[in-house]
Amino acid sequence: MSLTADALSRLELDAKEVIARYPRPRSALLPLLHLVQSEEGWVSPEGIELCARWLDLTTAEVSAVATFYTMYKRRPNGDYTVGVCTNTLCAVLGGDEILARLEEHLGVHHDETTPDGKVTLEHIECNAACDYAPVVMVNWEFFDNVTPQGAVELVDRLRAGDPPAPTRGPGRLCTFKQVERVLAGFEDGLADEGVGAGPATLAGLHLARERGWAAPPPDAGGDAALGMPATGYGPGGGPSGSDAPADTAKSDPANPTPAGAPDENSSEGGKRQ
Ligand code: FES
């Protein structure tokens, strides 16, 4: 497929806007690959060449990135990516059965697209939505507590051009290309629409409030009850133990060691093991 002159000039304009958001042009590669997908529905060899030209990179450098991340598609993707989670909780509650049923019903397997170009099936890892397992995602929107029969009805509606609303999030599904434009950094205004966290998501929070539990303060004391050692980081405005090790920061002149972090080369520092 070759891009039309209209599509190309649209892409050129949008690419300029994306590149201008970064101090170094090459940092814009990830959103630009999404931008290409928003027009083409995949990252074609032509899309690779465009990104390389926009960023003054080689096509090999762009290909290396595009082939590393699974969200960049090297074959035309369907209008709807249907992702079925079979990690622990979803598997226990029927995720494997859902996947098998969809493979049989659609006649495609992982990373394959139905002949009508409507659905690409993906076998995916945990969506961090285990509270509503088993979960199916369509273009990264949640369909909660899905049954095998419900999954079949879902893909049938997608293929019939009658996409149902997700269980949470915005009240309508976007197509793959529309979502890719958002991932390229062009808002569609739907981010805050609909319910994000449902009752099951918030159950732990409500329980903690009822019982007066609170998260431990962000200090350097560790958590003796959990057997977590003190890190030596934190007091006096220093970074937390979750921040990058100081020696990593030192190796990067653009990101010097944060004020307050112990010097791991001195006899005072190096508390972290
Ligand atoms: S195990 Fe399926 S969403 Fe977490």
Automatic annotation (TrEMBL):
The keyword Lyase does not apply. It is an enzyme of class 1 (oxidoreductase). GO terms for molecular function: oxidoreductase activity. CDD domains: TRX_Fd_NuoE. Keywords: 2Fe-2S, Iron, Iron-sulfur, Metal-binding, Oxidoreductase. The keyword Transcription does not apply. Its EC number is 1.6.5.11. Its cofactor is [2Fe-2S] cluster. Residues 213-273 are annotated as: Disordered. Residues 220-230 have a biased composition (Low complexity). InterPro entries: NuoE-like, NuoE_dom, NuoE_N, Thioredoxin-like_sf. Belongs to the complex I 24 kDa subunit family. This is NADH-quinone oxidoreductase subunit NuoE.
